[in-house]
Amino acid sequence: MIARNAAAPAGRIEFRMGINVGDIIIEDGDIFGDGVNIAARLEALAEPGGICLSAAAHEQVRDRLDIAFDDLGEQQVKNITRPVRVYRIPITLTLPTPSARAPSLSRIAGEGAEHQRREAGEGKQALALPDKPSLAVLPFQNLTGDVEQEYFVDGMVEEITTAIARLPWLFVIARNSAFTYKGKPVDMKQVAQQLGVRYVLEGSVRKAGNRVRVTGQLIDTTTGAHIWADRFDGALDDIFELQDQVASSVAGAIEPKLRQSEIERASRKPTTNLTAYDHYLRALAQAYRYTGLAEAVVLARQALAIDPSYAPAAALIGFCRGLQRLRGSGALSADDVAEACRLARQALEAGRNDAETIHQAAWTLYFLAGEAETAAAALDRALALNPNAAHAWLCRGHIHAYRNEPEAAIEAIERAHRLSPFEYTFVRAVIIAVAHLAARRFEQAIEWADRALHNQPRAVPAMRVKVAANAHLGRLDEARIELSRVLAIDPKLTIAALREYANSSSPACAWQAYRNERRSGRAPAGGDIGCRYRGLFAADGWGRRGHPRGPACSSP
Fold first, then answer.
1. In the listed set 387, 413, 444, which residue is the last one of a domain according to the structure?
2. In 3-state terms, what secondary structure has residue 452?
3. Model confidence over 117-136: pLDDT tens digits?
4. Which pTM value belongs to this model?
């Protein structure tokens, strides 16, 4: 058809095609349904003489034809509820003369793809993937309609590349290499082969008046799957501030998605061919589940057996032990605690440039050894290395809350939430509940504890917050009900155990803050929360033989 059109006079008819794979309805010799409607919308998106495919059609043919498809992204089309992902076959070729035999469309498109590949430097041997996750940030498309904005778009990509490069567990292609693809239609698999990466981040920038919208999507080139996509809006009042905000948001958002993708990849590998990194990723998956903390410790130890100096696995063991104590999932032996703290110190020394490792080790040393100053200094270092480390901000908020610094805790937690909005919503709720308890905002503490329990119905830390808050509000019946739920999950819980777990600094029990308030004459009637806890325990028969009450409340 293309060959014939080339020889036809002006005013010729040029066809365009839309191809979709989907269900149809046949009735009275006609066809209906979304499958047909999407194909019709794709045809409208195609250029004269061109072809557009849906993602469903592209999935069927992408590995069977020697064609380079242009990914046009998601398009909102008429009468279709969801956006449709569209691919285009580029046909920018030197066409044959009329006397020549007309070649097939697949051959023409294939020749166009070959031309593109030669321009991009294909023909060189594909680079091997490095031994850690690898990513290239491609130049974003400038869709502002203003060539003057190229510097802004390129600056945005440079900031994003720099922010992501701060993740030491990630191999990031240098900006200059990635920018060789600027202005060229590219195929993601070819980019991956030429640069030797598994993941590619691409995007675009649009402008309306004084506002811009930046969109991005993260692609696993080995499967073609889109593992993350989002958009960010901002004003052009301060270009550099906007670039920093978008770069921070993108880096914070894709980090957990990359980790999850790597975890899923490791879980599919045969168990006879696992590296220390694979064992670590499997351990991380169990740790994220919270119910698999013991299994996570086993897997992390297997990683250390392969590589004793592997700092992330060492830090993860201590982190899991701390979570076990925090969640009330069984008493830790002295040997468990000693091992966790030893490995945390080892990780701090060996993983000096890894914010993730540092924050886990800091958390361990605070919650298991009470080393507040060491933990605070380590977290400062982690956030200096990577200000977009959402987990480190979460850890900082956690420690602030348990040191009776509620406002600083909430500020840190909200910073973590902004960087990674869909991760650790349960932990965020628990820490904010603890912070409100420390600030004596008992109703808000109960509200946030309930949010956590809605997400994790057996979350002992949230239940403990409700016990303390209800006791302070004089709602002893509600406190006893919540306490019975705590003891059903952790029947060996004692006030002594709570003191040990909190390292004398936990506002969840409010040991230090309320003791100070009693000394200053500002304590609520009925004594400090330790006494109220003890009264509740005694009222439930908790002081019977075999259930020690723990130390008595200190006097003013």
1. 387
2. helix
3. 444 444 455 677 777 788 88
4. 0.56
Give the DSSP H or E segment for 7: helix 2-7
Helix (H) or strand (E) holding 340: helix 334-350
Host domain of residue 170:
134-250
Residues 6+ apart with CB under 8 A from 86: 42, 45, 52, 53, 54, 55, 72, 73, 74, 75
Q: How many domains does the chain have?
A: 4
In a domain? residue 237: yes
Instruction: State the Cα–Cα distance between residues 438 and 433, nearest whole angstrom.
Output: 9
DSSP structure string for 363-400: HHHHHHH--HHHHHHHHHHHHHH-TT-HHHHHHHHHHH
Pick from 85, 120, 155: which residue ends a domain? 120
CA dihedral 146, 147, 153, 154 (to 10 degrees): 180
SS3 537: helix
Q: Token match 């997400």: residue?
A: 455
The verdict on 400 and 526 lying in the same domain is yes
Report the distance separating Cα 334 and Cα 347, nearest Å.
Answer: 20
Task: Report the chain's terminal Cα–Cα distance, integer Å.
Answer: 94
Q: Give percent above pLDDT 90 in the chain.
A: 16
**Tokens standing for residue 195:** 């640069």
